[in-house]
Amino acid sequence: MSITDQLFAIEQIKQVKSKYAYSADRGNWEDFASVFAPDAVFDESDFPTPLQPFSKEPVSSEILDYFKESGSRVEWPLVGRDAIYAEHVGVAADHVMVHHNFDPYIVLTSDTTATARFRFESQHWFPAGRPVKYMHNVGAYHETYVRLEDGNWYIQTFRLERQRVEAV
Q1: Among 44, 73, 94, 129, which residue's CB has the most CB atoms within a 10 Å radius?
Q2: Residue 21: exposed, middle, or buried by beta-carbon count in 10 A (0-12, 13-18, 19+)?
């Protein structure tokens, strides 16, 4: 693969990740799911104890219980594009999200495979009536990508590593 082809492949992978974030932020779950390979493995099980913003103090027990219950209803990892779609399509329309991905580190491991790490920050405003009003996450996405027969790149494996979660 020429250096030009390598750079183009890396840029294509960045575009896939951009579509992932934009689709999630807009609640467009069909587009969101379309960035994953049909047999993708998706794991968001990493969830450290949430803290109060700008502190090292844990959140209230009510908020902690809410997150524990929410996380326990999902059997991680999700396997397959259809399972990823089914898990996300139920997100409330008034759950507002903003994802920022940056500092991509992408290694092409062959003409059709790659590994990637994207640092991220996300903010979530929860629907009224929930014990959580706002959540702020920082961490990294650890992913592998595959170029399928259609010539497009897809996320093959997805693992979210949260370094810090803040909630109120």
Answers
A1: 44
A2: buried
Give residues with Cβ within 8 angstroms of 89, minimum separation 6: 29
Rounded Cα distance between 119 and 43, Å, is 16
Q: Tell me the per-residue pLDDT of 46-73, one tens digit each, with 9 for 90 and over.
A: 999 999 999 999 999 999 999 999 888 8
**Bond into 50 cis (ω within 30):** no
Type and span of the H or E element at 67: helix 61-72
With contact defined as beta carbons under 8 Å apart, do 141 and 163 qualify? Answer: no
- How far does the chain reach from its first CA to its final CA, in angstroms? 49
The predicted-structure confidence for 95-113, as pLDDT tens digits, reads as follows 999 999 999 999 999 999 9
Q: What is the pLDDT of residue 71?
A: 86
Closest CA to 98 of 143, 138, 71: 138
Q: Assign 59 to helix, strand or coil.
A: coil
116-128 mean pLDDT: 98
